[in-house]
Amino acid sequence: MKKIQILGMGCAKCAKLYAAAEAAAKELGTEYTMEKVEDIEKITEMGVMMTPALAINGEVKFAGRVPSAEDLKKTIAEAK
């Protein structure tokens, strides 16, 4: 099961990324859990300086932008 984390303080882009990542995971039929990380200390501990960011299984994949649906699907599918 993949752990998908959306890192951000609850901005509109963070909500958009959450919805897009969830949709991509569902389309792929991937088993996953979704988590919002809004604690600024946890976000910076993960090395993220710009939000929104997406991490899969603790590894940051995107930061500072909302990737395209295709990029999200590819990244989720390839994540270990």
Sum up the structure in keywords.
80 residues, alpha+beta, Glutaredoxin, 4-stranded mixed beta sheet
Molecular structure report:
The protein is α+β, with helices and mostly antiparallel strands. It has a single domain (2-78), classed as Glutaredoxin, CATH 3.40.30. It has 3 helices and 4 strands, in the order E-H-E-H-E-E-H. The chain has a 4-stranded mixed sheet. A hairpin with a 2-residue loop joins strand 3 and strand 4. The longest helix has 17 residues, at 12-28. The chain is globular, with a radius of gyration of 11 Å. The termini are close together. The relative contact order is 0.27. The mean pLDDT is 96.
The level-1 CATH class: Alpha Beta
Number of strand elements: 4
Roughly how many Å apart are the termini? 9 Å
Strand order of the largest sheet: 2-1-3-4
Characterize the biggest β-sheet: 4 strands, mixed
Summed over residues and divided by their number, the pLDDT gives a mean of: 96
Q: Could you spell the SSE succession in H and E letters?
A: EHEHEEH
Q: Rg, please?
A: 11 Å
CATH superfamily: Glutaredoxin
Which blocks of ≥5 consecutive residues have pLDDT under 50? none
- How many structurally independent domains? 1
Helical content class: 40-55%
Q: Report the total helices.
A: 3
Q: Determine the CATH topology.
A: Glutaredoxin
CATH architectural label = 3-Layer(aba) Sandwich
